[in-house]
């Protein structure tokens, strides 16, 4: 498999963009929670450092050929899968994830998932180039392009106030189901299972930079869905609070005047 001629930019650019968005989201969430500018900046910088460290570790492991061992039990790639799930849960259910869930708007949390649209287009290009097996594309068994496309639509609808939590909840369930589907397809296509035959093995993600597809982009998608679920739960159980926004003060002032 010749990977040097593959179009690598989306598999480098999208992960870097996601890390920058996470750091920016952390900065905004901390500031909205009442933290000082300096504190919010430190959290954002820490997020960047930890994220780029994870990117460097996964790149180095892939470059060393560590994920090419499919004879060991379990294969090293399975540890990467478990790490992705564990880190996603740690992000979503930690105090860090709680601040993101509470202080970032729902439309923004949904809108970030639109990265899956250009990703799916890039993955289809990899299939057409003969690098990625067909089952991993939307010509096969991967329907995650639906999530990326509808994320834009749902984000705009929620931002405009046309619909709210019920739409986000329904979309989030669909998006998570489609993510689980493509991850299952990816695992079944590895040399350990060969579910789709030896001519359709999924090994390209064991090489850099494509290892960032599972290590960064799948992680971001899963963590994002979990944060949205947490946001929906926290906002449905929270008691209404006076809005600190100037618009909220204006509304109350008008009410008193009336």
Characterization of the model:
Helix 1 runs parallel beside helix 9 and helix 8 packs antiparallel against helix 9. Helices cover 67% and strands 0% of the residues. It contains 10 helices and no strands. It has 258 residues and is an all-alpha fold. The longest helix has 27 residues.
Structure summarized in a few sentences:
This protein is mainly α. 67% of the residues lie in helices and 0% in strands.
Topology of helices and strands:
Elements: H1 9-32, H2 37-63, H3 76-93, H4 95-103, H5 106-111, H6 116-128, H7 145-159, H8 165-188, H9 212-237, H10 246-257
Give the key terms.
258 residues; mainly alpha; 10 helices; 0% strand; disordered C terminus
Overall spatial form:
globular
> What's the total helix number?
10
- Stretches where pLDDT is under 50 for at least 5 consecutive residues are 240-258
Report the order of strands and helices.
HHHHHHHHHH
* Cα distance spanning the termini: 73 Å
Describe the largest sheet. none
Using only C-alpha atoms, the radius of gyration works out to 20 Å
Note the quaternary state here.
single chain
Alpha-beta content class: mainly alpha
Mean pLDDT level = 91
């Amino acid at each position: 498999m010749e990977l040097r001629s593959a179009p690598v930019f989306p598999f480098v650019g999208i992960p870097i963009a996601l890390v920058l968005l996470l750091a920016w989201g952390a900065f905004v969430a901390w500031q909205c929670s009442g933290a000082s500018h300096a504190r919010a900046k430190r959290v954002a910088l820490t997020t960047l450092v930890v994220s780029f460290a994870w990117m460097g570790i996964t790149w180095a492991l892939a470059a060393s050929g560590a994920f090419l061992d499919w004879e060991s039990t379990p294969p090293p790639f399975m540890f990467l899968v478990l790490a992705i799930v564990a880190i996603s849960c740690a992000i979503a259910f930690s105090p860090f994830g709680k601040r993101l869930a509470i202080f970032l708007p729902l439309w923004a949390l949904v809108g970030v998932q639109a990265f899956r649209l250009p990703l799916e287009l890039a993955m289809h290009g990899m299939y057409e180039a003969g690098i990625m097996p067909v089952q991993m594309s939307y010509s096969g068994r991967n329907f995650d392009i639906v999530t990326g496309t509808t994320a834009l639509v749902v984000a705009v609808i929620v931002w405009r106030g046309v619909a709210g939590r019920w739409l986000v909840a329904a979309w989030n369930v669909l998006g998570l189901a489609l993510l689980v589907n493509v991850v299952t397809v990816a695992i079944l296509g590895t040399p350990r299972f060969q579910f789709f035959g030896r001519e359709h093995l999924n090994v390209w993600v064991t090489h850099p930079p494509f290892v960032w597809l599972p290590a960064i982009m799948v992680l971001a998608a899963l963590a994002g869905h979990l944060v949205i679920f947490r946001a929906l739960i926290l906002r449905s159980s929270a008691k209404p609070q006076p809005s600190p926004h100037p618009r909220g003060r204006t509304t109350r002032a008008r009410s008193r005047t009336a």
